[in-house]
Structures are given as C-alpha cells and as structure tokens.
C-alpha cells in the first residue's frame, strides 16, 4: 500500500527509499517483528482463556511433554496478523506473485485453524479428516499455481547446472501444487518441540529472500546462471516479513513455550515457503534449504510404511525429533542441533547460486 502511494506521488525526497526492495524488506521485517511483540502477551492471554486446557498432549509421546498441558495453541494467528499487515504495508500489491503467495499463506492458515479448533474443541489429536484437509490444501495450491504459472515458464530447473531444466508443460501445475502442499505439511510435522519449526522457517526464509531478490534481477541472474523471473524480487519482502513475524513468535515460543503455533502457523509458513520457491523457480533448492522439514516428513512416511509391512518400527517414535528424545536427548539439545543442521542446509542451498 505504501509502495503504491509513493509511486502515485512519484517517490519524492526521502520517500524514494520505498522504491528499493532492500529497504522495504528491512521495513517489513521490523514491522512484523514489532507488531508481533506488541500483540503477543494479550493474544496469548486471550487464547489461554478461550481454550482452557490448551492443545491436547499425546499420551504415547515423551513423558516430559506432559508438563506442557494447558499451553494454548493457534499462536500461528499472531504470525499471520503481523505478517499480513507487513505485507500489505510494504509490498507492491500489483504484483501477481504477492497475491499468489498471500492466497497460500492465508488459505493454509485457515485450514490449519480449522484443524486446531477441532482438536481443541474435541480434546483430540484427530482434527478434521486428512482427506478433507488435503483436498482443501490442493484447492488453494491449485489456484496459486494458476496465478504463478501465468507469470513464469513451466520448466523445472536443475540446481548446480546452468541452463539445464526439465520441461514439464501442463504437469507443472500439479508439480507446483505438490510443492506447496508438501512444504506446508512438512513444516507441520516438524512443529513438535518448542521453537523447533520456528527457527528453521526463519532460516529458510532468509535464504529465499536472497534467492528471490537475485532471481528477480536480470543482471544478477545472468551472472549467476540462474533462471531470471521478472518481479520475483518482491518476494524478498515477504521472506523478510516471515523472518520478523517468526522472530516475534519465537520470543514467546522459546522453551518453555508460552504458546504453540499449531497447524494454523506451521501450515501457513510451510505453504508460503513452497509458493515462494515455485515463484522464484527454485523448487529443488527448497528441498535442500528445507532439508530438515524433508527429513521429518520422510521419517513419518518410512515409519508408517515399514510398520504396516512388518509390524516393526524403524524409529523409536516419529517424526524423527521424537526418536532422538527417546534416545535420551534433552528437548533443548534436539532443538538447537536441528537449528544448526538448518543453517548448514541453508548455506548448501545458497551455494547452488554459484556452483553451476
């Protein structure tokens, strides 16, 4: 909104700063951070009063988690409020990528809210049916894919190689939707310990802020040998907003957590990362930068598949962060070590920009 106003005024004087994506990215980060910190305490108190017993805790999970009973969930609403306000203020609202990513972020957030509400209301871990949830997610992702593909080609670019891609044609619409839905659910599965999902999302958003900005610049994209996506640089502002909103939430989600983000936040943030990766044509790089999320999702798939085939478990408990807890690692140890892994993976992902 501020960008459109400044553009209408022809960017006079100091307002000319708003012309630059780097300035607006920093402003979006600070805006989301400040809003999140301001609304956090009252928002958490409201959730605590309305939810009573808070998020249901798994009886078959680590016994240390039983002490978390009464902690409110749906804290992802805090993230969405601060993020959407920052996006609305600082992003170019004429950019189709903005609306596609906004649709996924809010759409997945609403689906996650429905799931969280059902869990709290029924005092159960079931939530809405998996079939309904996936159907709604693919509906939202399909709409976003249509918007995004109207701005980009349908090639799947291979990292570490210049001008190498797989032409997917019409199948790219399905592929893009799968990336968004997969990213949303992978982050959702990772969100099982205090702060575990929040910091890796912040790290991934930071990496993709750089990637989106470079992909949106013809000069940098040509120099680096990466696909140039006109107007994709605007998504660096969204990534910065995710970082600011995530940091504000982490202030309250740090162990011992005063609030859980719930599916409301994890689905929204994961879906947003997927939409950004598709828009910037770095879908495979998302699997590297978000490798921790991929590992968490794969651990669940392997556990369920192997148990159905043999009646035995590969891991003591899935997702894999619970496996390490069952091995005797303290929760804080698991969280911090997974953060370190996320940083390493983000650096590897960023290295694909030059190693081609």
Describe it for me?
With 356 residues, this protein is mostly helical. The protein has one domain. The protein is 67% helix and 2% strand. The chain has 14 helices and two strands. It has a two-stranded antiparallel sheet with strand order 1-2. A hairpin with a 7-residue loop joins strand 1 and strand 2. Helix 5 packs parallel to helix 10. The model has no long low-confidence stretch (mean pLDDT 91).
Number of H/I helices? 14
Oligomeric state of the chains present here: single chain
Compressed to H and E, one letter per element, the order equals: HHHHHEEHHHHHHHHH
Shape: globular
Provide the gyration radius in Å: 20 Å
What would the average pLDDT be, to the nearest integer?
A: 91
Q: Which percent range fits the helix content?
A: 55-70%
Query: Which structural class should the secondary elements be placed in?
Result: mainly alpha
Query: What is the terminal separation in angstroms?
Result: 38 Å
